[in-house]
């Protein structure tokens, strides 16, 4: 009799395990676009801060999301929701991420990752000076990005972020063509340790050796880094013509 009572419990446990192991539903770009343009529940439309083309805004310090890797976007939303990454601007992103379901995150990431990838030069550096930012030297930034500085234990940035910062999904985001102000802010946060949601502490380990000048130089290079001649099918690998 005891075995008969145990059987339903065993079946329930097995079915629960099967549900937990079931693959997540893929994101729906059309539903993601609806969230981005109109918001959902109490979450306002994302384009209010990130722009209708999802290219970000230097005046607000918001990043370009268009063309970013889907897995990376999904991770950031999860990290914001769990407070593993903090948005100190009134905690807007933490509140918004928690106001959505995980499937909403997937839909949003699917939509954003499919947007314009090749467009660069979004930040008008002369205009950015009005926000109190100092421009770096682009050539120095390119040199640091490509070669690093072994004497200061700074590895070449491209080994993780790919050719001209095009990104290496799913772990390493696209940084080329990103907004200048956002790049500056995030590199300072990595250096200070106030942002800590990097896998294995890689970014904190690199950024702690960067000077203010290094940060400005690298950001100046990356914000306008060209896509170059690279087949769409291999954009995530280091197989592009320099």
Specify the oligomeric state: single chain
Helix percentage: 40-55%
Radius of gyration: 21 Å
Globally, the shape reads globular
CATH 2nd-level architecture of the largest domain: Orthogonal Bundle
Provide a count of the helices. 12
Number-wise, the strands total: 0
In terms of structural class, how would the helical and strand content be classed?
Answer: mainly alpha
Mean pLDDT equals 87
CATH class of the largest domain: Mainly Alpha
Strand content: under 5%
Assign the CATH topology of the largest domain.
Cytochrome Bc1 Complex, Chain D, domain 2
**What is the distance, rounded to the nearest whole angstrom, between the alpha carbons of the first and last residues?**
74 Å
Low-confidence stretches: 1-21, 235-242
Polypeptide structure, described:
- The structure is a single chain.
- Mean pLDDT is 87; it is low at 1-21 and 235-242.
- The chain has helices spanning 2-21, 29-38, 47-50, 70-81, 92-98, 102-113, 125-128, 138-147, 158-161, 180-192, 202-207, 212-223.
- The radius of gyration is 21 Å and the shape is globular.
- The chain is mostly helical.
- It folds into two domains: 29-113, Cytochrome Bc1 Complex, Chain D, domain 2 (Orthogonal Bundle), CATH 1.10.760; 125-234, Cytochrome c-like domain (Cytochrome Bc1 Complex, Chain D, domain 2).
Main attributes?
242 residues; Cytochrome Bc1 Complex, Chain D, domain 2; 12 helices; 47% helix; globular
Give the secondary structure arrangement, pairings included:
Blueprint: H1 2-21, H2 29-38, H3 47-50, H4 70-81, H5 92-98, H6 102-113, H7 125-128, H8 138-147, H9 158-161, H10 180-192, H11 202-207, H12 212-223
Helix pairs in contact: 2-6, 4-5, 4-6, 8-12, 10-12
């Amino acid at each position: 009799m005891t075995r008969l009572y145990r059987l339903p419990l065993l079946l329930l446990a097995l079915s629960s395990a099967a549900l937990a192991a079931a693959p997540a539903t893929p994101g729906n770009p059309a539903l993601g676009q609806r969230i981005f343009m109109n918001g959902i529940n109490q979450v306002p439309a994302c384009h209010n801060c990130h722009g209708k083309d999802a290219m970000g805004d230097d005046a607000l310090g918001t990043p370009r999301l268009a063309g970013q890797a889907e897995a990376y976007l999904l991770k950031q939303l999860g990290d914001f929701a769990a407070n593993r990454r903090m948005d100190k601007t009134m905690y807007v992103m933490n509140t918004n991420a928690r106001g959505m379901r995980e499937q909403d995150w997937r839909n949003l990431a699917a939509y954003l990752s499919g947007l314009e990838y090749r467009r660069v030069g979004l930040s008008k550096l002369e205009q950015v000076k009005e926000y109190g930012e100092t421009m770096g030297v682009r050539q120095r930034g390119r040199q640091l990005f490509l070669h690093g500085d072994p004497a200061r234990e700074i590895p070449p940035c491209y080994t993780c972020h790919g050719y001209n910062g095009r990104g290496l999904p799913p772990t390493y985001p696209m940084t080329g063509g990103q907004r200048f102000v956002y790049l500056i802010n995030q590199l300072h946060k990595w250096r200070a340790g106030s942002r800590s949601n990097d896998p294995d502490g890689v970014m904190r380990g690199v950024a702690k050796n960067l000077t203010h000048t290094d940060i400005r130089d690298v950001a100046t290079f990356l914000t306008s880094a060209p896509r170059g001649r690279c087949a769409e099918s291999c954009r995530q690998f280091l197989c592009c013509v320099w």
